[in-house]
Amino acid sequence: MNRPQRGAAGSRGLGTMEVKSKFGAEFRRFSLERSKPGKFEEFYGLLQHVHKIPNVDVLVGYTDIHGDLLPINNDDNYHKAVSTANPLLRIFIQRKEDADYSAFGTDTMTRKKNVLSNVLRPDNHKKKPHIVISMPQDFRPVSSIIDVDILPETHRRVRLYKYGTDKPLGFYIRDGSSVRVTPHGLEKVPGIFISRLVPGGLAQSTGLLAVNDEVLEVNGIEVSGKSLDQVTDMMIANSRNLIITVRPANQRNNVVRNSRTSGSSGQSTESSLPSSTPNILANFLQGEEESDEEDIIIEDSGEPQQIPKAAPASESLESLTQIELHESTQNGFLPSAEMNLNHSAGSISMEHEVQDPDHKSLEEDGTIITL
Amino acid sequence: MRRFLRPGHDPVRERLKRDLFQFNKTVEHGFPHQPSALGYSPFLRLMAIGTRSGAIKLYGAPGVEFMGLHEENNTVMQIHFIPDQCQLVTLLDDNSLHLWSLKQHSGASELREEHRFTLKGPPGSPPSATQITAVLPHSSREVLYLGTESGNIFVVELPSFRVLEDRTITSEAVLQRVPEDYCNRRSCELVEALREHPKNPDQILIGYSRGLIVLWDLQNNKVTHQFLGSQQLENLYWQRDGSKFISCHYDGSYTQWPVSSDNRQPEPLENLVPYGPFPCKAISKIYWQTTKNGLPYIIFQGGMPRASYGDRHSISVVHGSQQTAFDFTSRVIDFFIIFSSEPTAEFDDPSAMVVLAEEELVVIDLKTAGWPAVHPPYLASLHCSAITCSHHVSNIPLKLWERIISAGSKQNIHYSNMPWPIDGGTNIAPDPPQRDLLLTGHEDGTVRFWDASGVCLHLLYKLSTVRVFLTDADPNDNMNTVGEDEWPPLRKVGTFDPYSDDPRLGIQKIYLCKYSGYLAVAGTAGQVLVMELNDEDAEHVVDHAEADLLQDQEGYRWKGHEKLKTRDGPVRFEAGFQPFVLVQCQPPAVVTSLALHSEWKLVAFGTSHGFGLFDHQQKRLVFVKCTLHPSDQLALEGPLSRVKSLKKSLRQSFRRIRRSRVSSRKRRGGSGNALEVQEANAKFDQDALQEMELAPVQRKIEARSAEDSFTGFVRTLYFADTFLRDSSRHCPSLWAGTNGGTVYAFCLRVPPAERRMDEPVRAEQAKEIQLMHRAPVVGILVLDGRSTPLPEPLEVAHDLSKSPDMQGSHQLLVVSEEQFKVFTLPKVSSKLKLKLTALEGCRVRKVTVANFGSCKTDDYSENDLAVLTNLGDIQIISLPFLKLQIRYPCIRKEDVSGIASCVFTKYGQGFYLISPSEFERFSLSTKWLVEPRCVVDMLEVTSNNHVHTKSGMENAARKSRSSGDHGEDERKSGRLMEHALLNDEKVLKEIQSTLEGGR
């Protein structure tokens, strides 16, 4: 997942940095230690303090070097904001109630906007006057291309992040055949292909997968020799953190090796060593694997909780918990909630139970029959 | 640390694994699927059954079984034992002949195919010229006579299958002496029957399909007698003394013919249509058996009046004024009569009739008045009503075992007491290590108790739950009643009855407590019956209770079947398991899980709507829990709404089949050129690939959500005495796992025994675990402080198990279709997991804890999980560390019903259905292995016959001639036989005593 690049963050400038913060018509100026920006929570507290709005929920945004208004809502983008501020960090604060969501992301690349809007509004096929982007703190990665440096250029390893149950992964696979080079010359071998993308699904919205892409691996495991049903089961079993390696049908948009545009797994500097792929992927997965699914337990107190690890919890677990929380708050104030109603009413009822301890315990009383 | 211990790197463990695990398919229980041929050797006293899939199975005394499989997998058409040999010949529908023999190998006999042969005619002759229709193994054991469609009879030498062309009996040679006018009317056509003269091995009787019968002299190569039959011939049978024979015909008649030296072309003695005068169906086989009292037995298959009884599968036995037409529920494949086979005996004196019907084996005792059926010790028709579920209980205490047998014996009084007449061979397998029961639930509401301890799966007792309910079937409707003037005198025999009165009666789950004799049985219409073993008949009222699993759910309508109506008032139950409580789930959906705790006297049951707990001591419902998801319409409405989608999917699959047929036909045309095999193969592959592209089967990739259908479906229920709330006090608990990956845990308070009737059992929900991967939970298990699975209820009380360790901390194992997960208790935190589906793409279908003992040392054993996946693989996974130990392919992944039917035993064995009527038994353990091990010894057969008849001299001489064919492993017996050639009575006795001493 989006590893915080803490090391890199403060390395650029030294000394202090000027911050100009605007809330309504009021401006506040203060300075920050560029090398020690601290955490977002602290920064958020600081802003509330300097503007004297301790109990007001606000949205924090900043203008980046291109003049785009971008949100600050976690450590990552906070550090990014601090590290890129040159020389001044301009902060804009809005009340949550009257926040103008459409202001965010203006002038950014259209592709990016699509991605975001698609994630946050699953049914974007419905016509809407203008695109509404939900709360910035709900932003999270939905997909990424990983291991670019260790895979052959013809392959693409795509990671799909499936958090809640609100958006379908949305693709179909089928049997097919592909031509391989073998010691006996060219041979046709059976393979698994993407046969259909569900409009509005995660797979389609990422733009990273397409019909007729050949599926080579699922979470690091080769699919050759496995039946369609087996591959289906593997994908569904990994659906919360699905990493599929494909050979795209369209080979024109491949990532060019030496321009390291997306280095999410920036561990490997030795590229072009395809033989080491499984290892690296395995390492990569190892840390993440544990976090991909944590079961929920409800004790008889009615208090839901994520099942803790018996072993010391890893860092990634924390991050996941955070995300899960974000997710559940999202239902509260999505402006397009009425459109999601059908969908969410059913899908999140588990969370409903989890969230509503009163309701829960009531129900339990009902089941205890004392004779 | 564990992470670095890679499996397969520990040589000690690897060695131990070899001592613990081993995969074997050991024996097939039940009735062969689609039998197609029957054979019997009076000499070996062995019966052979061939099937449409090319299997051949030999059966003798209980425990004596052999199996062979023709490589071609073609239908076995005929089976003929070579007289007085351990050899048999099979004819397949591809016109190939196969010679099989029983040979001893390391102490036990094995059935092996020795030779195969296809009769080839002269070049250019039509295939019918060599299409074999009749086979006669000659008593000289040197040749086979093969009657063909062309009417020619070929002679082949044994065992080489060399055609002796000069001895071919052509139809021209036969017709030479047949009167012109008869010849003109009909050509010979195919050879229908070949029979050797019972006294004179140089004469054979040849019957042609158009009715001509001739007696052929092998010495002089000419016809000695001709019998000009006017009806199409079906079969022939010699009378014992060779003075007469009998022919049976297509028009339902049979005819007796005299054979004497003064008349070379005799007229028939008697021509009779037994079920005339109206047109009758063919009599396809007939026996004429002489008896001491002079009245013969005439036994024939078919011959029923065409119009009114043409659809019956019958065999009639006529003996003087007694006549019975045994009426079988399935097609008769073939039958034989067991009679005195001693050549010196004056009469046949038939003792039993063995009938192979398509779905069962029926044996009739012909010696006892009324001709009762004999209870077969093997070849049971498991599917007499379709099997709906099965349950295995290992190591039954002797007391319960005897009580079940005694209950069963009261049900079997109508069977004959005759010892099993097919008793060839010797079972040398060690006695089964323990008494095992396999319980099968059936569609008709019965539960059958099988003795699954050894090689012979034998019915002990049959329990019917039908009496509790009111069904449409009239209880007075007895099929067996025969009116006074009933003609034909039909009598229903056999147990195969695939028609269920009411599908709701079907048994879905069974749970037997072997210590207390409590049995819980649950069915298709939400009925849960709790029963108790009673050695006497009893009449009592069954208590009823309703469990409304949808208590607080609104706006729902069950569209499935109604619950079964119950009988009011007391019901009479025969000795055996007698129900005393009926819990009716509402809505009456199929019961999907069941657990019984005989110590706490509690029964838990689950359906697609929820689960409940019932106190069968106080006869009170303790609680119910609805597991239904509000959006799950399918589960709400019941099975009816699924019909549409089923229809649709059926239609689709038919389409797919049709498509693949078309393309396979094309394929065949393409690969015609034999010289370019490679190219053809490549083309084949290409076609196969193209076909795949033509039929794009798509699979949707979607994360499971709480919305999916049947998430509330309760898959597993489990009772455990463990630490649910805190680590200081343990308490009884009930665990339930659903299809949606939820585990519910309830804390139970069971009053102590002395106040058990006074205080209510209480339950309180303590925990709910939602597995994030949401896969169906198929197993729940609690491991004690020593990481040993908790013992079964009452196991400790009976001193059969160590009491569980309540000091160390307990662990919870949850098995979903996709993962194995160990959690700590009482605080549920995840400790370990093994992902199966994510890594291998297979899912768990069945899982059981099994105890594996080492074959090397008696004192080592361990508990592991035996797992069957949807790919038909069996995996053994260690406890508590969840390490994959070993993997064996077991069932074809396409065999969905086989995988669904699999049941594991507690000691690493298992059963699965390979057809509706057969269980394959397999073993994963090196220590517990039940497989047939038996000897068929020529010597022994000989001496046994000697004991039987006291006319051993001739017998031994006869047998000794044949001993030349024996394998090298029998050198010792061979030497003994040389002595026997001296025809010395003393030597024979010596042999006999040697044999008996050696045994």
TrEMBL record, chain A:
Where it sits in the cell: the answer is: Cell junction, Tight junction; Cell membrane; Cytoplasm
Domain PDZ: residue ranges = 157-250
Q: Which InterPro entries match?
A: PAR6_homolog (IPR051741), PB1-like (IPR053793), PB1_dom (IPR000270), PB1_Par6 (IPR034868), PDZ (IPR001478), PDZ_sf (IPR036034)
- Which example biological process does GO assign this protein? centrosome cycle
What Pfam families is this protein classified in?
Answer: PB1, PDZ
Any keyword Endoplasmic reticulum?
A: no
One GO cellular component this record assigns the protein to is: apical plasma membrane
Q: Does the keyword Cell membrane apply?
A: yes
Q: Which domain of life is it from?
A: Eukaryota
Q: Residue limits of the PB1 domain?
A: 16-96
Q: Where is the composition biased (Low complexity)?
A: 259-277
Q: Which UniProt keywords apply?
A: Cell cycle, Cell division, Cell junction, Cell membrane, Cytoplasm, Membrane, Tight junction
Family matches, as CDD domains: PB1_Par6, PDZ_Par6-like
Basic and acidic residues: bias regions: 350-363
Region Disordered: start-end pairs: 253-279, 349-371
Output the SMART domains linked to this UniProt entry: PB1, PDZ
Q: This protein is called what? A: PAR6B protein
TrEMBL record, chain B:
Stretches of Basic and acidic residues bias are at: 962-976
Q: Where is the Lethal giant larvae homologue domain?
A: 273-372
SUPFAM superfamilies named among the record's database cross-references: Tricorn protease domain 2 (SSF69322), WD40 repeat-like (SSF50978)
Q: Does the keyword Oxidoreductase apply?
A: no
A single GO BP term for this record reads: exocytosis
Annotated Gene3D superfamilies: YVTN repeat-like/Quinoprotein amine dehydrogenase
Claim: Cell cycle is one of the keywords in the record: yes
| UniProt xrefs under SMART domains | WD40
Q: Which UniProt keywords apply?
A: Cell cycle, Cell division, Cytoplasm, Exocytosis, Phosphoprotein, Repeat, WD repeat
Q: Which Pfam families match?
A: LLGL, WD40
Outline the WD repeats, range by range.
Answer: 69-110, 433-451
What GO molecular-function term can you cite, just one? Answer: GTPase activator activity
Q: What is its main location?
A: cytoplasm
> Signal sequence span per UniProt?
none
Its annotated compartments are: Cytoplasm
Q: Where is this region: Disordered?
A: 947-976
Q: What does this protein do?
A: Part of a complex with GPSM2/LGN, PRKCI/aPKC and PARD6B/Par-6, which may ensure the correct organization and orientation of bipolar spindles for normal cell division. This complex plays roles in the initial phase of the establishment of epithelial cell polarity.
Q: How does it assemble?
A: Interacts with GPSM2/LGN, PRKCI/aPKC and PARD6B/Par-6. The complex is enhanced during mitosis. Interacts with DCAF1.
The similarity comment for this entry is: Belongs to the WD repeat L(2)GL family.
Name the UniProt record assigns to this protein: LLGL scribble cell polarity complex component 2
Protein source organism = Caloenas nicobarica
